[in-house]
Amino acid sequence: MTARFKDKVVIVTGAGSGIGRASARAFAREGATVVAAGVRPQSVEETARLVGADGGTADAVVADVTRPEDMARLVRTTVERHGGLHVAHNNAGVFGRPTPVADLDLSVWRSVLDVNLNGVLIGMQQEIAHMRAHGGGVIVNTASNIGFHGRRPGMAAYAASKAAVSTLTRVAALDHIKDNVRINAVSPGATDTGMSLRPGETDADRAARLATTVPIARVATTDEIVAAVLWLASDESSFVVGHDLVVDGGVTS
Ligand code: NAP
């Protein structure tokens, strides 16, 4: 086992399932102390338990990324309990029900943007405030390859929010590289999680449905996405600033 994150403290949002849970486990396997954050206590506590069962160290904190007071508390609690904050993976996201633009309820549009875009901004504001006062840090945001194309009918809110995360990442990276805070994003393609599961569909059905849209003819494992997140969070990518790394099996190639 490599230990690229030995002595590092890492926050992962949306850590109660899917890519976030895999990220928390992967950072911990590589030596980090992980704070798994999310809205459902039982989900983030289960992630912390799994990290512990893997032999790692993790803590669970309930925090809603849309609430600045929650994200401030998350950073404060992390620093108080673990002595610092070196890496943040802003990963929480929601998909929303597919709806054509003309029929899209504004409240749905706003709620998707609130989590996917505002949540990343709010998280970064709290994380950067700590990092720049303590010598720097690294941030990786989860965007999506859907932000790069329009070929998911009915997904305007999701696609627009993720395109905005990509651009927000680039601007934030340039705003804060002088503070020694290095910021990048990963844009996954279809990944083996419960996101975008249709009513009555099993995980296997979803994977088979999405695989037909991917040149490599399958969906990604969460570990394939997390490998990119950890690389961007590590010193191996020390000259990579404001990049959005697409990991999508060729969809946007
Ligand atoms: P997921 O399992 O549904 O994970 C999303 C996580 O975000 C959940 O744990 C969810 O918690 C959490 N979350 C939602 N709203 C939140 C809020 N307001 N505050 C804090 N946490 C919140 O799906 P996933 O695939 O792992 O998604 C992770 C990220 O990857 C998302 O940003 C998603 O857009 C992105 N992504 C996924 C795919 C894919 O195919 N899976 C492709 C491209 C990008 P609850 O479950 O408790 O609500």
UniProtKB/TrEMBL annotation:
This is Glucose 1-dehydrogenase. Its EC number is 1.1.1.47. Belongs to the short-chain dehydrogenases/reductases (SDR) family. The lineage of its organism: Bacteria, Bacillati, Actinomycetota, Actinomycetes, Kitasatosporales. Gene3D superfamilies: NAD(P)-binding Rossmann-like Domain (3.40.50.720). It comes from the Bacteria. Coiled coil: none annotated. InterPro entries: NAD(P)-bd_dom_sf, Sc_DH/Rdtase_CS, SDR_fam. One of its GO terms (molecular function) is glucose 1-dehydrogenase [NAD(P)+] activity. It comes from Streptomyces lusitanus. PANTHER family: DEHYDROGENASES, SHORT CHAIN (PTHR24321), OXIDOREDUCTASE UCPA (PTHR24321:SF15). SUPFAM superfamilies: NAD(P)-binding Rossmann-fold domains. The keyword Oxidoreductase applies. Keywords: Oxidoreductase. Pfam families: adh_short_C2. The keyword Oxidoreductase applies.
